[in-house]
Design a protein that fits this description.
- The chain has helices at residues 2-10, 16-77, 80-89, 113-120, and strands at 95-105, 124-136, 148-151, 159-166.
- 51% of the residues lie in helices and 21% in strands.
- The two termini are 45 Å apart.
- Strands 1-2-4-3 form a 4-stranded mixed beta sheet, with helices on one face.
Length: 174
């Protein structure tokens, strides 16, 4: 019931009167249920409660850590277009190696860290560079003709971005 009330408030944006009425109806029933089962905790019900607390702690720690890593990674990666612009004004100029390179990006608007390292530490880049990002959408299927989006990133320098979109039921085949 508490989770339902939180959803009513935060997601559905129901009025405070509706939320209070719902709380007055359901919370006494929950309180009655919890208090009637409290004696069982001493007789073995403590184990599933402890197990649930451990699982909750692991899940919340994982989620918080993932948010922290994502935030730091986005700061390090920076905008893809800004990175390509920086490569063009860089002095000394980036050495272009023969061949192709594909860099996988986690987000279509950010430059991959491997690409940063190649330019910043090695001062070199392949002649043909493709930054590939794959997104799985909430739609079941994406038509084949709408799956790929090519972007030349403003310059005719063989650095490009390819964004592939798949539905959650589509087979991903790159």
């Amino acid at each position: 019931s508490i989770l339902f009330i939180v959803v009513m408030h935060s997601l559905w944006r129901k009025s405070i009167q509706v939320i209070l009425f719902t709380a007055l109806v359901f919370l006494p029933l929950d309180l009655l249920f919890v208090t009637s089962n409290l004696p069982k905790i001493l007789n073995g019900a403590w184990f599933p409660v402890a197990l649930a607390l451990v699982a909750f702690t692991i899940i919340t720690t994982w989620t918080k850590g993932q948010q922290i890593v994502t935030k730091k990674r986005r700061l390090l990666e920076g905008s893809l277009q800004a990175f390509v612009d920086k490569v063009h004004v860089r002095q000394p100029a980036v050495i272009r190696l023969p061949g192709q390179a594909v860099y996988i990006s986690h987000h279509p608007n950010f430059a991959p860290l491997a690409l940063h390292k190649a330019v910043d530490e090695l001062n070199e880049l392949h002649e043909n560079v493709v930054i590939l990002s794959v997104q799985v959408t909430t739609e079941a299927h994406i038509p084949v003709e709408e799956r790929a989006l090519f972007d030349g990133l403003r310059y005719n320098d063989d650095i490009s971005h390819l964004s592939l979109k798949y539905g959650f039921h589509d087979s991903i085949n790159i």
